[in-house]
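New here. Your pick:
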Amino acid sequence: MKVEIWSDIACPFCYIGKRRFENALEQFEGKEDVEIIYKSFILDPTAPKDSKQSMNEMLVEKKGMALAQVEQMQKQVTAQANELDLDYKLDQAIMTNTTTAHRLLHFAKEHGKMGEMKEKLLQAYFIDGNHVGDVDTLATLASEIGLEEAKVKDVLNSDQYQLAVQKDIAEAAQIQVQGVPFYVFNRKYAVSGAQPPEAFLQVLNQVHEEEKKEQPLNVIKQGDACTDGSC
C-alpha cells in the first residue's frame, strides 16, 4: 500500500496528524507493506526567509483576530500536541519560508531518509525553535540523520529539487487538496486533516481489504487542517 502525505513543515496539524497516523499504523497488521511518501505543500509561498514576527503576531495580522483569541487557539492546538507527547513551543517558532526545507526533503528521499528528515524538521520547527529556512541550520539537522552536511549545503545553495517541489504542489492542485495534512491511499481514497488514530486505522483496513481497482478519489474523512499561511 502506498500512502502519500501532502503536508507543510509550518503546519501544526501536520505534526499532530503524523503522530496520529503513526499510532494507527502500529496497530495495522499490514504495516510492513505500507510505503509512506511525503509530498510538498507550502502554505505561504510568499513568506520571507527571515521574519521578526512571532507566530501569534502573524496570526493576528492574517486572521484579523484579537491577540487573546489567538493565544487561546494556540493553547488548544498545543494541548492536542501534548496528548501525543509533542511538547509544542509555538511562541518560540521562527517564521520562515519552507521551500528550502521541502527541497531538503526531496534530497533526503533519494538517500532513503525522507521520513527521518520530515520528523527532524517538524521537531526543529515546533519544539526546538530552529530556523528551518536557514541553509546552515538545515545542513546541521540533515547531518544528524546521517546526510553529508557539505553536500546538503551545496544542494540547498542551488535550485536543485525545486522542480520536484513544484510537481508535488501541482499534483495537489490536480486532486483538489485544499488543506493539509492530506493523506492519499493508493490513489483511491483520501483522508483530510489530523484524524484520530482509529479513523486512520479504519481506512488502512478498508484499503487493505478492497481489490485494487481504479476508482475516483473519495475524501472519506474531514478534520482539522491548515489551508493557508495564516493557520
